[in-house]
Write a structure and sequence with these properties.
heteropentamer; A alpha+beta (258); B alpha/beta (608); C mainly alpha (182); D alpha+beta (276); E mainly alpha (425); B: 608 residues; alpha/beta; Rossmann fold; 5 domains; 6-stranded parallel β-sheet; C: 182 residues; mainly alpha; two-stranded antiparallel ribbon; 9 helices
Chain lengths: 258, 608, 182, 276, 425
């Protein structure tokens, strides 16, 4: 667990995702996998057994053709700000919130793979390594040295590209200063071609997510359960904003994809 | 003293107790836990100096600028270059993972280059009077293409073939100018043209997407017109009639499944919120006619100057459209698959070959493309290894010259297609790129954009060697915007594609292919995140049906089924989605699927 | 014999204690000599090198670790002295231009992100604080590797994670596991 | 787990949780250690035989644990609280004081055709003890016991010099599949061993002078006890599926084991010799 | 041939027959061990669990067997603490059942975790706020206690007790068994509770989430009561089953009736508490989290019938049967009611594990289904086989039912007096 001492200057990293801009290309998903050394799919993997720290879901308004309208919603760890469901349930403190950044961290080395946190997470943003990580011969050369590959049998999830955070911190140190919130962005943010995802410190009023939090078109997923996620979505479309709430029967039953 | 069993028990008990007071058991427990962190099979990423290199992505004509992160000499991540005048910092998922391509398990490692050369020479010698030896270039406009043309000019029966292209390579769409864009199914927001450029221009135009399926583009369009499959021309005709105050509109509207009013309002928007631009996949006559009517030519469709070439290259074979070659006339066909822009179905190519014993040689990264039909498949370098230029994309108003500078060295045994083909004609091809760069420099127009500092400099101020060096470091030359660009472009005669035959009795459905990108290009295994570990994109050999259609065909969710078209049949896996129009089967273009059905084809699904 | 049972039991205890305290610690490590018999002392004394002359930082703040052969070859292109070690080094590595397969004692496990520069530059920690007197040794110890975990002995011997944590705690810099883990 | 572990956190929750955990561990460990300690002490004090009997006694069916004073009608029902060691029993002492046991005048008593000499004292496990003139006590199987085993296949007798305890094992008898221990009626040191043919098995010398035999049945108690034993025998034989039951009041044959070949002889002997 | 190990005076089938009986179970165990081995060596990809169905058959099995195994702690509590002497007739059997259930559960948990080599981390770095930590600690402590409680039963084996030190240790330990029973009650109490809490604390799963009562969710207490209710029922059921299979009388009908009465009493308390809890959940807890409770039951096949089955069919009805003296006296009714009670608790555990995970939480989630793979099922069957084997061996060689010998004699007497009534059981 963490020390009681609160660091002097704390950040609350968060994101804002403009659903109206997302074209569902999937660049964030592969950029994330490249950055975080997520292995390619095992031949037996499916959308239910794969590892996608960020996953773009195709959601729709529940109508049939031709009234069907779809939108793309990238879902990653929502970095819950309060009562993160996964933190308190971990039997051995492999999940914790960094008070300096507000990032909900997952420690694969500490994890024993009980998957209780996955059951606890309503956002399904936690992924289990069902297989030993394997890359085609030679491709392991392309792994990012700032992120350790995880072993089979542990849970992993988005940590706002902690490897980049480390590198940014180190670069700041080379320049003789401590890390600032603006020093890095996660890989998905950098890769998003439509700039739908923006990253920043919610404690800074001028940051994109802090601005988004005040935006009337913004919403967070399942706000009613009180987890205070730090990922703000926004859309001008009414039906898209409905995805923040509980599922309704029949909606997207046969057609939800992504 | 004889040992009893009792003594043994006591001794073992004693050693167990004793062992508990040594570090051994605890250390074994701890070590085995540590071992689980790095047990065999978990690779250790190499550590080393982090470097940055720039290049241009050669996977598609967009040629997006790439900033590669390297550990030592090994690229470990590719990202876009922000501030780039063409690609605006954008990379698509295919480009983001391209540094994996050299390690694809399906990649060809070696091929019979010498035997192929001999066989080609022998076959050319055997060519009859009406028979030809052709090079099919799947990405015309490159320096390599000029090499092929030069080579074909000096080879007996030589012919240079290019696939049909929307604007004939000498014109471009200017999205920046457009206020209203009507797209007939062009995947405008899904990899069309230069994605970064489209996204940058997107806020300035209203997008009306007319297509049967709610594609990625349709879902983000300002207006989606869910028309019936194959009714694009009817819609164009209806709009044209509204614009010209001509009757009839209603019969066309009925064909498209839209109301007259919808069509009228679209037409009015195009007319009043100009400049307008009408796009479709292949720029059919109907679309071009609409553009003419709306006055788009010269405003949103403009001429683009050629990238300069050395004078000596001008003696080259003409560019021949594959469609205009008589059937059964090609004896030798060399296909350059190393850079693919659009995959042609094999039947269109096969038709052109002589009946008896044609020789097909293909240059490809794997056997999955035309290699399935060729006598010789010669392995080529893949993108981050290749040294090739990328011709300007369809939405690039100015000519451009950029090189995909290799990030990693290609393995031994690769065949360079331009050297191979130049070799047939006895041409030297090795420094063609340099010659072209010098020709561009000599012309002296335009600017050089260098990535490291995101700076532009007038080409006149750059020395030839520095220009060459900058190009090798990922620099990009952009032609000066031509003052006369508003002139009407000279457009090729586009012929109507084999109009979608009215569906016949035995093929009641319409197959619409999507994800065409995945059909041709090598894919990083990480693309499985999109195709397999999520269903964001439809995976190869998967098909989506409306539940009503599925019931009629007797297939259920997850079932295996056979898709039949006139060209053959393939096995598919079915999923259901009530957002797909009834009567349509949405299939993913996988290996072989393109050969089976084009953009939209009559088809039939039967349970396997 | 009255105490026979007890004696047998005690014999078991003693055998286990002996094996556990004397045999096991030896058996668990696999030992491997360093490729070159390098003397930090000679380099510090004769060449007057400081640690950072060879173990330098790069511009982006990353630590260059053990210098590459280029750095060595800069002086040792030809023999400077007459030691056997130097001659071997030149014959086996400098002339064929082969990087010596150094084994880094303190190389952190894959899941640890250790940034030298934050410690050396920001926190002003002396090299000796963690590396002890390595900089003034005359020979290189053999590299010892745990047979099971595969980690170098010295990652854990002199300094354990608890020692890292203790110092971080002291400075109020212990926030989360991901401070150091990756 | 421990304060020195990385990640340990002082807080109310850890106090409660780990407090409860360590308490549980301590209680469980103490219990086990206490049991080990006590058993070692018992072993050292040679209380094995006593414990064995107590354990056996605990396992006897309730109806087999009745107090001897139920036979005489002094109690309607009473369970023996001292595992048939009346020497410890205050109730027994009081009752004996009130009604001293009556000596039968005959020298030899015939009960159900079996001889139960009055100069012998009888143990509930079918052993008799007869004080001899030289101060020793002779120990043997009573008539019912003898008829049960008939001619034993083997008898394991203790070595002279061995110590026997009242209610401890006196000797082992093997017959057919049965292997039963016969409880010793008295405490003492074995001085001589007999054999089945000689009518007695052990000669026991008291360890410290006087032999206390208050706990053994004598006089008028014997008959009702024996009647009850006959019932038990009948029950045991019938329960084991030995078809013909003893005729009521009939006399047991000389070798019951031989007469009931279908009986689970082990169970029958266990029942009668109080070894469950 | 193994006669010397079998207690005196009880009848057990012949050795070949016993071998014939255990053979299929051994085969099943071997198959299960192979399945579990595959899961351990190749990883959990051998199962049909996935990221969304992160808990599957095994967790359901754990929750169920531990609820059923509660008979051990509860009978011990009633016998040693509340001094219900009649229950000494089944206490040994209850301890064996408890041991089987708990050790089986732990064995499955070891397969269920992705990194068994690190399982000790939970002990070394416990997060005292996690219900799973509580589960892990309690389950392992209680297994230790059960093993110690099993020891006297084992050492009482006819052959083993000939060793003096075993005999004496058994005797001394047995005297202290009430301490262990007390500790076991405490542990099992918390263990059952924390298993309930496991799901009750899941704020992200409004279907399972229950508002806290002190630091615990209400499921914490519901699990304790339901386990206490069903434990005696399961002992009743197993005793009856063993009687049927071995064709012997092992415990007096009064003992079984007592078990039934206790079970019925607690079951009615449970049904009442569960009803109140459900009403509060439907009307307050779930709507407050933004989830109208009706939508949970709109997904087929989990309609409201499952709620009805859980509370009325397998709760109220068996409780009423077991509380009605007339019905309780009839073995058919008693045993059926006990079986229904066991089924009810299994259904409750199923609802909490499988239904919770099947239901979508996000608007664009799908309702999921899950079917265990053969490797998972094999491991599950291994636990069943293991349980049957341990129980069979214990029954054959140990005195699980102290009254068996007396009852044998009584049966003999009864048989003489009145002819055996056909279909008495």
């Amino acid at each position: 667990m963490t020390s009681e001492k609160k660091p002097g200057k704390t950040a609350r990293y968060g994101m804002t995702i403009d659903v109206d801009r997302c074209n569902g290309c999937g660049a964030c998903m592969v950029a994330c996998a490249v950055e975080n050394n997520v292995p390619p799919a095992h031949e037996g993997a499916t959308d239910r057994k794969g590892i996608t720290w960020i996953r773009v879901f195709q959601v729709d308004n529940g109508e049939d053709y031709p009234n069907r309208r779809s939108a793309f919603v990238p879902v990653l760890c929502q970095q819950c700000g309060k009562d993160a469901p996964c933190v308190s349930v971990c039997p051995q403190q492999a999940v914790e919130v960094d008070p300096a950044t507000g990032i909900v961290g997952q420690m694969p080395e500490r994890c024993l793979g009980c998957r209780y946190c996955m059951v606890a997470c309503p956002y399904h943003a936690r992924y289990f390594n069902w297989w030993d990580p394997a890359w085609p011969a030679g491709m392991e050369k392309t792994l990012n040295p700032d992120v350790a590959p995880r072993m089979r049998g542990v849970v992993e999830k988005c940590n706002f590209c902690h490897g980049r955070w480390h590198a940014a911190k180190q670069l700041a140190a080379a320049n003789g200063r401590a890390i600032e919130a603006v020093d890095y962005v996660p890989a998905c943010v950098e890769a998003c071609p439509t700039r739908a995802i923006q990253f920043g410190d919610l404690n800074r009023p001028e940051s994109a997510p802090a601005q988004a939090a005040k935006n009337g078109a913004s919403f967070r997923l399942l706000e009613t359960i009180g987890t205070e996620p730090k990922i703000y979505y926004r859309s001008k479309k009414n039906w898209v904003r409905q995805i923040s709430s509980a599922p309704k029967l029949g909606l997207g039953k046969e057609s939800s994809r992504g | 003293m004889n040992t009893t069993r009792r003594d043994l028990f006591k001794f073992v008990g004693g050693s167990v107790v004793g062992a508990l007071f040594t570090p051994a058991p605890w250390r074994l427990i701890t070590d085995s836990a540590l071992w689980s962190e790095n047990w065999p099979g978990i690779p250790r990423p190499a550590r080393g100096e982090i470097r940055t290199k720039f290049t241009n992505c050669a996977l598609c004509p967009a040629g997006c600028a790439v900033r590669a992160r390297l550990v030592g000499d090994q690229p470990v991540a590719l990202m876009g270059v922000s501030g780039h005048p063409l690609s605006h910092g954008t990379l698509c998922p295919f480009g983001l993972t391209a540094h994996h391509l050299p390690y694809l398990p399906t990649r060809l490692k070696q091929g019979p280059a010498k035997e192929a050369a001999e066989a080609v020479s022998a076959a050319i010698a055997k060519c009859g009077p009406s028979e030809q030896a052709a090079v099919l270039d799947l990405r015309p406009g490159r320096t390599a293409s000029w090499t092929y043309r030069r080579a074909m000019a000096s080879v007996k029966h030589g012919l240079y073939l290019a696939p049909p292209s929307p604007l004939g390579g000498s014109a471009a769409f200017d999205l920046q100018e457009a206020k209203t864009v009507l797209s007939f199914g062009a995947p405008l927001l899904d990899g069309w043209g230069t994605p970064g450029n489209v996204i940058a221009a997107r806020e300035n135009f209203r997008l009306i997407q007319a297509e049967p399926l709610e594609s990625r583009t349709a879902s983000l369009a300002d207006l989606w017109l869910p028309i019936r499959p194959g009714s694009e021309e009817a819609l164009a005709q209806a709009i044209a009639n509204v614009l010209a105050n001509r009757e009839p509109v209603a019969p066309f509207a009925a064909l498209t499944g839209l109301t007259e009013q919808q069509i009228t309002s679209v037409a009015e928007e195009l007319a009043h919120n100009g400049p307008a631009l009408v796009l479709d996949g292949g720029q059919t006559p109907a679309a071009m006619e609409l553009n003419r009517q709306l006055g788009s030519l010269g405003r949103t469709i403009v001429a683009r100057r050629e990238t300069p070439v050395p004078e000596s290259w001008k003696k080259a074979a003409p560019v021949t459209n594959l469609a205009s070659v008589p059937d059964g006339s090609i004896r030798v066909l060399l296909i350059d698959e190393s850079a693919v822009d659009g995959y042609l179905s094999w039947s269109t190519i096969a038709r052109k070959l002589v009946r008896d014993n044609p020789l097909v040689v293909t240059f490809a990264w794997s056997r999955q493309g035309y290699g399935r039909y060729a006598q010789f498949v010669l392995p080529t370098a893949v993108y981050p290894e290749v040294f090739d230029d990328i011709p300007p994309a369809i939405d690039s108003v100015a000519a451009a010259f950029r090189i995909a500078a290799p990030l990693v060295a290609p393995p031994a045994g690769m065949v360079n297609p331009s050297e191979f083909i130049a070799g047939l004609a006895g041409l030297p091809a090795a420094d063609a790129l340099r010659q072209r760069a010098d020709a561009i420099h000599k012309a002296g127009r335009g600017t050089l954009f260098t990535y490291a500092g995101a700076k532009s400099a007038a080409l006149r101020d750059v020395k030839p060697d520095n220009f060459w060096k900058a190009l090798n470091e990922g620099g990009c030359w952009l032609d000066a915007v031509d003052e006369k660009r508003r002139e009407l472009p000279i457009l090729p005669d586009t012929e109507a594609p084999g109009a979608t035959e009215s569906s016949d009795e035995d093929l009641p459905l319409v197959a619409i292919t999507c994800e065409t990108r995945a059909a041709a290009a090598p894919l990083s295994p990480l693309m499985s995140k999109l195709y397999q570990e999520s269903n964001l994109r439809l995976a190869a050999n998967h098909a989506v049906l409306n539940p009503v259609t599925a019931r009629a065909c007797g297939v259920a969710e997850g079932a295996r089924a056979i898709l039949q078209t006139r060209c053959g049949s393939a096995q598919i896996e079915i999923s259901l989605d009530s957002g797909v129009p009834p009567g349509v089967v949405k299939v993913a273009a996988g290996a072989g699927m393109i050969d089976l059905c084009g953009a939209s084809t009559p088809a039939k699904v039967v349970a396997a | 014999m009255k105490h026979r049972g007890k004696i047998v039991f005690l014999a078991g205890v003693l055998v286990a204690l002996g094996a556990g305290w004397l045999g096991f610690p030896r058996a668990i490590y696999q030992s491997r000599p360093q490729p070159v018999n390098f003397s930090h002392k000679v380099h510090a004394d004769k060449a007057g090198s400081k640690c950072e002359d060879c173990h330098a930082f790069r511009e982006d703040g990353t630590f260059a670790d053990i210098p590459s052969l280029d750095k060595c070859a800069g002086c040792h292109a030809a023999a400077m002295g007459s030691t056997v070690a130097e001659k071997n080094f030149i014959d086996r590595y400098v002339t064929p231009q082969r990087e010596p397969p150094w084994a880094s004692y303190a190389r952190q496990p894959e899941n640890v992100y250790f940034s030298h520069i934050t410690h050396v530059k920001l926190a002003q920690v002396k090299c000796e604080r963690c590396h002890g007197g390595e900089g003034s040794t005359d020979t290189l110890r053999p590299y010892q590797q745990d047979r099971i975990s595969g980690y170098s002995r010295d990652v854990w011997r002199d300094m354990k994670m608890d020692d890292c944590v203790a110092c971080h705690r002291q400075h109020g810099l212990e926030h989360s596991c991901l401070d150091c883990h990756k | 787990m421990f304060p020195w572990n990385y990640g340990f956190h002082w807080g109310a929750a850890s106090y409660i949780f780990l407090g409860a955990f360590y308490t549980v561990l301590a209680v469980v460990a103490t219990t086990v250690i206490f049991a080990v300690f006590r058993s070692r002490r018992a072993l050292a004090a040679h209380e094995t035989e006593e414990i064995r009997w107590h354990s056996d006694f605990h396992d006897l069916p309730a109806r087999d644990r009745v107090c001897r004073h139920v036979f005489t009608g002094e109690f309607k029902s009473r369970e023996c609280p001292h595992a048939f060691d009346c020497r410890l029993c205050e109730t027994h002492a009081k009752l004996i004081a009130a009604h001293p046991p009556q000596q039968s005048d005959e020298t030899e008593e015939e009960i159900f055709g079996m001889s139960f000499p009055v100069d012998c004292l009888y143990h509930r496990g079918h052993a008799w003890a007869r004080p001899e003139a030289d101060g020793t006590v002779t120990v043997g199987l009573d008539e019912l016991g003898s008829r049960l085993v008939g001619a034993p296949d083997a008898v394991d007798l203790p070595q002279p010099g061995a110590i026997v305890h009242a209610n401890g094992t006196a000797f082992h008898i093997h017959k057919r599949e049965a292997d039963v221990r016969v409880l010793s009626p008295v405490d003492g040191e074995v001085v001589e061993t007999g054999a089945p043919g000689r009518g007695w098995y052990l000669k026991v010398k008291p360890i410290n002078g006087q032999m206390d035999m208050r706990h053994l049945l004598c006089g008028t108690e014997i008959k009702p006890w024996l009647m009850r034993e006959m019932e038990r025998l009948q029950l045991a034989l019938s329960a084991e599926g030995a078809a013909p039951t003893l005729a009521d009041g009939g006399v047991p044959v000389a070798d019951i084991a031989q007469s009931y070949p279908e009986a689970d002889w082990d169970a029958v002997c266990g029942e009668m010799f109080l070894e469950p | 041939m193994d006669k010397e190990f079998i207690a005196r005076g009880v009848k057990r089938c012949s050795t070949p027959r016993f071998l014939l009986w255990i053979m299929p179970w051994l085969a099943l165990l071997a198959f299960g061990a192979y399945s579990a081995g595959l899961c351990l060596v190749k990883g959990l990809n051998q199962t049909n669990m996935d990221n969304r169905f992160a808990f599957g058959l095994w967790i359901f099995l754990d929750l169920t067997v531990i609820a059923l195994g509660a008979g051990a702690f509860f009978t011990g509590f009633l016998l040693y603490i509340l001094k219900l002497k009649e229950l000494s007739a089944v206490i040994n059997s209850a301890v064996v059942i408890g041991l089987v259930c708990y050790s089986g559960a732990i064995a499955v948990l070891m397969v269920d975790v992705g990194q068994p080599l690190r399982a000790w981390f939970t002990f070394w770095y416990p997060n005292v706020h996690s219900m799973l930590t509580e589960v892990t600690f309690c389950i392992s402590c209680y297994l230790t206690v059960l093993a110690i409680e099993y020891l006297p039963i084992l050492l009482k084996n006819r052959k083993l007790r000939q060793v003096p030190s075993f005999l004496v240790f058994e005797y001394e330990l047995h005297k202290l068994v009430y301490v262990l029973a007390g500790v076991g009650t405490f542990l099992s109490f918390f263990h059952q509770g924390s298993l309930g809490g496991l799901y009750g604390v899941l704020r992200g799963r409004p279907f399972a989430f229950r508002e806290g009562f002190l630091v615990w969710p209400s499921t914490f207490f519901l699990f304790i009561v339901s386990a206490a209710a069903v434990g005696p029922s399961f002992i009743l059921l197993t005793t009856w089953l063993v009687e049927k299979i071995s064709r012997k009388r092992l415990a007096r009908p009064e003992v079984l009736q007592l078990l039934g009465r206790i079970s019925g009493l607690l079951l009615s308390v449970y049904v009442l508490a569960k009803t109140v809890d459900t009403l509060i959940w439907i009307n307050r807890t779930s709507p407050d989290a933004g989830f109208p409770a009706a939508q949970y039951y709109a997904w087929k096949p989990f309609g409201t019938w499952i709620l009805f089955a859980e509370i009325v069919l397998f709760g109220m009805i068996p409780a009423l049967i077991m509380l009605t003296p007339r019905l309780r006296r009839r073995t058919g009714w008693l045993v059926s009611a006990a079986a229904m009670a066991c089924l009810g608790v299994a259904l409750n555990r199923f609802v909490l594990t499988v239904q919770t995970l099947a239901l979508p939480t996000l608007a664009f989630d799908k309702f999921l289904s899950y079917w265990p793979s053969w490797q998972e099922t094999g491991t599950f069957l291994a636990v069943v086989a293991y349980g049957v084997l341990v129980y069979s061996f214990s029954f054959r060689y140990l005195q699980l039912f102290p009254e068996e010998r007396e009852l044998k004699a009584e049966v003999q007497q009864e048989e003489e007096e009145l002819p055996v009534m056909a279909g008495r059981y």
